[in-house]
């Protein structure tokens, strides 16, 4: 007879092995998702992408297949724009990790999307810049603390007399001090190259702290070039940060606001055409002959035409299916971009008249609306 004392151990071992099998796992496996998007949306995009690839492989697609290809392509482009818009909102909340995770996940679904590739590249650039500034602030704080330590060491040496302090302790401190000064000078050089006021302010702090850390070492003959370079950079950044003095003979000129080129490009990349229209109007008003105005305007017009065409098509399909209110909502949203569009005006008027008739028919007999 089998030894029943070993039955529980074999039973537990079998359960553990069963849980490890892929097809018989006792634990639910979550489907991959993206920040801001449900599992169903991700699965739908994956299916649409696969279906589009299959249709694009057809050597001689039928008209129905061509229409299906267009619909899938528009749906995937809309998803890409939504992903960029959501990532922009996460970035505004300083949730850089989720924004990067979202764009990388969206690119896994649509690796050939120029909108997603461009948005991810721009996000990485801004993220690296932000990270460099934060690390520079940390380096400045460490340098300022070392400056306080240097003053404490000096007081201690004066209290105990020369030669009393531990030689190794002083050597380690001087090594940290020199390393901190070198790091601050490197950060300052990168900040000065960016020519932004925030970076200039950080560069001024970094140069001043580095100068204080090096102290009397800058008076040595071998450090003459370094001393002059630090002073030259300090003079330069002070001049850039100094407010301009208006001339007495002439009234001060009104400072023009910077052109919203970056804001316009970001709005176009995220598909926010309302905001893009506002920035484009400002751009045209401030610099009507700017070389970048024409290509950006052409890009905006192309996106606007595609958005209106898609709205007309979607609204017609909803209207033909009896979804009058939904069709009306789609057409009205598109009309905010092109209020002068005759076809949209006609469709909206037709839908509003039909809804009015339907409400009249559904009203109780003898009731006047």
TrEMBL record:
Keywords: TPR repeat
Residue ranges, annotated region (Disordered): 237-257
TPR repeats: 308-341
Superkingdom of the organism of origin: Bacteria
Entries under PROSITE patterns matching the protein: TPR
The protein's name: Tetratricopeptide repeat protein
